[in-house]
Write a structure and sequence with these properties.
The chain is an alpha/beta fold and 323 residues long. It is built from 14 helices and nine strands. The chain has helices spanning 6-13, 18-29, 38-44, 49-60, 75-94, 123-136, 147-150, 152-157, 162-165, 173-181, 212-220, 243-249, 260-265, 296-321, and strands at residues 97-99, 110-114, 140-144, 169-170, 185-188, 224-230, 240-241, 255-256, 279-282. It has a seven-stranded mixed sheet, with helices on both faces. It starts with 5 loop residues before the first helix and ends with a helix. 38% of the residues are buried.
């Protein structure tokens, strides 16, 4: 069992240390000769030290990328990571709370649709996944952009395959359908990347919803559970997105904010987010109306109408809560 030491508590309250927490926990349960070592961890904690640590690790590995540890979902490790790393972060740092739990169904499968924001590591999703699993004992899997699985930066930051092993589902149609067929409680951001990348100027303004979750809900007769998150806009404040730079770097978004100077000095802060009390408001289950049109154009139109109707309902609640 992984026990928090004084060093782990230090890492929790010192932003450059969050990446150390994730990797130390992984190494407790996995043999990872390609992973970071103690000297490199200590370099994370000093300005610019991460770059030296990265160079040292690259030389240590013979000037190659870290090898994959396998990419199969491991529910046992997800539970360990949730109990031993996510739990103290949720309880003591984000202080996340569920509201209106009477709206939670007794069982799944479900598509949990939440407003996603923050332009940072998806902490609003991770907190919600933890709270739902604690409340109902559910096995929860988030749908994530493909870049969170295979971007070269993440391969160096975190163990290769880390997101998949912890239950991440690629935002691709086939994986989407497979997850639902396995009775998964699937966390889904209907706005896609438009949500977290919209920037501070558009905080608490829902962007256009994608159609895929409406179609899958209809075809599989799986209800949608809308959830409103308040506080996630403050995970990385005063940001705006430089889209051209994001495309050049092959990133989902490229946030620019007063914090970026700190990120340049301490790249290990990439998995960190500012302290914000996160409140989750569970809404009544939403069951899609049957899509009866046969032509692709008419089906898309009907799906679009339902997606935007749900968006409008969620936006009204967000507007009321943010006053």
């Amino acid at each position: 069992m992984y026990q928090f030491t004084w060093f782990d508590w230090f890492c929790l309250w010192y932003p450059p240390g969050w990446l150390i927490l994730f990797n130390r926990h992984w190494q407790r349960y996995h043999s990872d000769p390609d992973g970071w070592n103690w000297l490199e961890y200590l370099l994370f904690l000093i300005p610019g030290g991460f770059y030296l640590a990265l160079f040292m690790r690259w030389l240590r590995l013979g000037c190659r990328l870290p090898r994959s540890q396998g990419e199969q979902f491991d529910p046992n490790y997800q539970q360990l990571f949730k109990d031993e790393i996510i739990a103290p972060i949720v309880k003591y740092y984000f202080r996340a709370e569920l509201h209106q739990v009477e709206n939670l169904p007794a069982s799944g499968p479900l598509i949990v649709a939440m407003n996603h924001a923050g332009m940072c590591f998806p902490w609003d999703f991770l907190n919600l996944g933890y709270l739902l699993s604690e409340q109902r004992g559910w096995l929860v899997q988030p749908l994530a952009d493909v870049s969170l699985f295979e971007h070269p930066w993440l391969i160096w930051w975190l163990p290769p395959g880390w997101a998949k092993i912890l239950g991440g589902v690629r935002a691709e149609w086939d994986e989407f359908k497979e997850a639902i067929s396995n009775q998964t409680i699937l966390l889904y951001a209907p706005e896609g990347l438009r949500g977290p990348s919209k920037g501070w100027a558009k905080r608490y303004q829902l962007q256009t919803f994608n159609l895929s979750f409406i179609r899958l809900s209809d075809r599989s007769s799986i209800p949608i559970l809308p959830v409103i998150c308040m506080g996630n806009e403050y995970l990385h404040t005063w940001t705006f997105n430089i889209k051209k730079l994001a495309r050049r770097l092959q990133l989902p978004f490229s946030p620019i904010s007063p914090l970026m100077f700190a990120f340049v000095l301490f790249p290990s802060m990439g998995v960190w987010a500012a302290r914000s009390k996160l409140h989750y408001y569970i809404q009544p289950v939403y069951q899609t109306a049957p899509i009866t049109e046969n032509s692709p154009k008419q089906e898309r139109s009907q799906s679009y109408k339902q997606a935007q109707e749900l968006r409008d309902k969620m936006q009204d609640i967000i507007t009321q809560l943010s006053r």
